Amino acid sequence: MISCTEFIPMYSEFFKFLEKRGGPDAVMKYWYYISDNSIGDKTNPHSLAYFADRLGGFEGAVAYWTHTLTEEACDMVRIIDHKKKTYYEQMRHCPSRGMLNSLEHVEPYHNYCGHCNVIYSRVLEKYGMVYEMDFTDIENARCSSVLYEKGNPPGEGYDTITGDKTVVDMKSEEAEYFHPDFHLLGDLALKYCGEQYGDDAVTEFLTDFARAYYSPLIAEIRAIGLSALKTWFETTYEKEHASDVISIKMNDAELAVTIIRCPVIEYMHSLGQEPSKYYIQETTTLYDVIAREAGFCFSLDYYRDNGATGFVFSPIRDVRNDEKR
Fold first, then answer.
1. How many independent structural domains does the chain possess?
2. I need a surface site. Which of 24, 75, 150, 325 has the fewest CB within 10 A?
3. pLDDT confidence of residue 74
4. Containing domain of residue 68, as a range?
5. pLDDT at residue 45 tops 90
């Protein structure tokens, strides 16, 4: 398992992977897939389409973003005119894009934020709404957007605070950056990869991602040993509010990890969803690559339907020396 915040660099690297495979058109095709099968999935109670179906396009979008933007701990101001049905959003700092900008060892996909405009507008147009974004200052993790009814573009002053509008000033420090729905998108990405390009492509992508994104962790394991990996697991499960499901035993010979249930699968089940067949492959491939790159080996002891797992990291043995014994 990776933390839901680590989904952001995974997403960015997946866009790169798709563009390498089929150019910008392959990326756009995937964005349409996300829009139709994730935020456009009316059966998912956390999707934009679910909210829009019940509250209408405008009010549904406002309610949906209230939920997601809070969980993503965005720093922003929202100006909402419920009577004229205009919604203006000034993002002062996007934590997701800010995270990508802060990484020194991987570059963000060159059009990473473009997916927001595509996936939202594609759903909202079905409800008679127009959604537009301005990415002028995206290199500083800032953007703005406007939502309005089709055929009724907002006039001057839609982005001005007046007494007849609802103003929501959100501060990053007032919320926790914890958006579990990112796990659904991560699993959906692997499912799409497998369906479009085959199982080997899933392994190829996950291997490339692990080598790139986890290179600092790999270097730390090489430097100080399995204690670095132990700390990473503890931090990851703490971020997921799931420190109670993991136990770790470490000695000079190995690091053994037991997970009594997977918080991601538990979350999926709470929404009536099942993980794809690639979910466990994400875990085993990432851990195997991290281990091998750091000079260790990874072995999975068991994996159950609820995500309960047991696995071990140990030094790579010299088979020739074993034979001599």
1. 2
2. 325
3. 98
4. 40-174
5. yes
Q: Give me the phi and psi of 259, to 5 degrees please.
A: -115, 120
**Average predicted confidence (pLDDT) for the chain:** 95
Name every residue whose Cβ is closer than 8 Å to that of residue 186 and which is 6 or more positions away in sequence. 2, 4, 7, 10, 11, 282
Taking only the tens place, the pLDDT of each residue in 141-167 is 999 999 999 999 998 999 999 999 999
The counts of H helices and E strands in the chain are 12, 9
Q: What is the pLDDT of residues 71-117, one digit of tens each?
A: 999 999 999 999 999 999 999 999 999 999 999 999 999 999 999 99
Choose one of 120, 143, 174: the last residue of a domain.
174
How far apart, in whole angstroms, are the C-alpha atoms of residue 51 and residue 59?
8
Contact present, 129 and 147 (Cβ < 8 Å): yes
CA distance 165 to 2: 40
Sign of CA dihedral 231, 285, 297, 304: positive
Q: Which helix (H) or strand (E) element contains residue 189?
A: helix 181-197
Inter-residue contact 13 to 209 (CB < 8 Å): yes
Residues 167, 92 within the same domain: yes
Can you tell me the distance from the alpha carbon of 203 to that of 30, in angstroms, rounded to the nearest whole number?
A: 18
- Answer with the one of 174, 208, 230 that is the final residue of a domain: 174
Mean pLDDT over residues 292-314, rounded? 96
